[in-house]
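Figure 6 in text form: structure in, sequence out.
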């Protein structure tokens, strides 16, 4: 499977799948563990690897906060919910894809069911089927400005998907950005254009992320940025101010 467990801080752990460099996160809080996304395995194997590495039981999971519906981030949410009845939070814009209101029938779904959960195939699997492999209902549909458990602020960052959100964890000033941005070689970058249907909204979302002045950026792919964060944000802000183009590959 190849799930790496990387410590970002004493409280934040990154679950990184080597095959697609996808990152989900576990945050230790005083009242339990909060997951930011749930891995790209529909049986929550990524999350289970993380729990084992931390010496934690599934019952310690307090909630699952989803950034968006794509399988490389949300596939394990239903399994986690079923395992410990953990509440799941996400935005209404992605609700149809997470609850199966989109098509789960016909040739596209038949093909989707036969694609293995490996590497980039996981994203393709979800896009082809227009839904996560297993439905999961939200305990709460979040909106911009919501405070979850006191410390996680919801930041609407639409563009990559209709209901994409980021979460700003105030105690560590950590931005869990999902696919609202990318971190490549210590630089803040755009996500690739082919997976960004609404470029106009995505630009606004990226600017919103930068305005939060994060001390740590935890993206949905590659690896977190923990040093030189302010300068990296300033460089991208200046690029946005200059109306710099959105490169094909971000």
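Output sequence:
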């Amino acid at each position: 499977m190849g799930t790496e467990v990387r410590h970002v801080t004493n409280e934040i752990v990154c679950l990184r799948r080597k095959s697609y460099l996808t990152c989900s996160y576990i945050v230790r809080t005083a009242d339990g563990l909060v997951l930011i996304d749930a891995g790209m395995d529909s049986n929550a194997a990524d999350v289970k690897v993380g729990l084992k590495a931390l010496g934690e039981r599934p019952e310690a999971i307090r909630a699952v906060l989803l950034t968006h519906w794509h399988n490389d981030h949300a596939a394990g949410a239903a399994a986690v919910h079923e395992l410990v009845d953990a509440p799941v939070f996400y935005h209404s814009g992605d609700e149809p894809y997470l609850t199966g209101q989109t098509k789960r029938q016909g040739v596209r779904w038949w093909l989707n069911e036969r694609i293995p959960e490996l590497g980039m195939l996981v994203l393709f699997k979800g896009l082809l089927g227009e839904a996560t492999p297993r439905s999961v209902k939200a305990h709460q549909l979040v909106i911009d400005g919501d405070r979850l458990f006191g410390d996680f602020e919801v930041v609407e960052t639409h563009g990559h998907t209709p209901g994409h959100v980021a979460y700003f964890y105030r105690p560590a000033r950590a931005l869990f950005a999902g696919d609202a941005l990318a971190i490549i070689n210590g630089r803040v970058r755009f996500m690739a254009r082919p997976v960004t249907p609404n470029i106009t909204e995505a630009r606004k979302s990226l600017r919103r992320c930068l305005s939060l002045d994060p001390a740590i950026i935890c993206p949905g792919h590659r690896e977190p940025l923990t040093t030189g964060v302010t300068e990296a944000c300033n460089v991208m802000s200046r690029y946005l101010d200059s109306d710099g183009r959105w490169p094909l590959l971000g």
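Caption detail: The domain at 3-241 is CATH 3.60.15.10 (Metallo-beta-lactamase; Chain A).
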